[in-house]
Amino acid sequence: MKNKIFQLVESTRKFVANKTIIAAVSGGKDSVYMLYVLSKASPKRLVVAHFNHKSRPESDDDESFVKELAKKFNLPFIVETLTTPPPTGVSVESYYREKRYEFLKNVLTSQKGNLISTAHTANDIVETFLFRLFTGRALRIPKQIDDNLFRPLYFTTTDEVLKALKYLKQDFRVDQTNFDLRYDRNFIRKIVQDLMQRFGKRLIINTLQKAIFINKRAGGMTKVVDAFWQSMEDRKKNVELIKTVIEKIRDEELSLFVLARWLYLNLGFEVGHIHCVRFRNFLNSHAKEIQFPLKKKLVKEENFLTIYEVR
Asked: How do the domains of the chain map onto residue ranges?
């Protein structure tokens, strides 16, 4: 285990050398191990950032734990507490994530940081891949380093994290909501755990490697399609033009992918397979408007599509 920890520290060092790193630490096993690795990788400066969601009775205890952990490593500690509950009709998980990253980006700016470091493990990446697969979304996964986001545990499994923390005799916080199968992410995590019991622990790394390969191919296709739509300028909202483009694509999945990218570029967020089918049917119908998630709708106005907020 000692060698594995050393190898991870050394591989992390090349990403953080001479940089100010903002470490997003929740107090859970992954972020606690990430903080240890970052501290040993010797960045120019390391700042511990904790976002208190106030979502559980234990939230304040999590904050106290991370504060003491930062003190143990002799690192600056910055915390923000969420004061506004999720609006009605908005996904709680999405709202928390949006507010958390808003906080981290503010810390990055105020501390003149170079990278935000998050504790996504190989298991998390595989779960993201499977979630997108099951919900009919584009098969994209996060990269190890993407703009100002860095994921040092990208190729580290949850099992390896637990073994490392046991070796280091380092405790961590446990969020009991992670075991609530009503949440999609937790349900998929349970599926992955069951698959690992049957096919072995290599399942995570093998799936991650396949996901990275698919992601690279999909990324190339995404760039081509996005460039096409962007070259259309104002004409890209012309109903007849969109219909003509789709009609010329004989492959069903490719045509829906092209529509998905149109929706992403114009609505600003991704939609699943079913919404792409709905959009295609809408284009070929006499319907005047179609509604999408996040209170957005498209309205046909003189053969052009206009985007409106749903009040």
From this structure: 2-211, 232-309
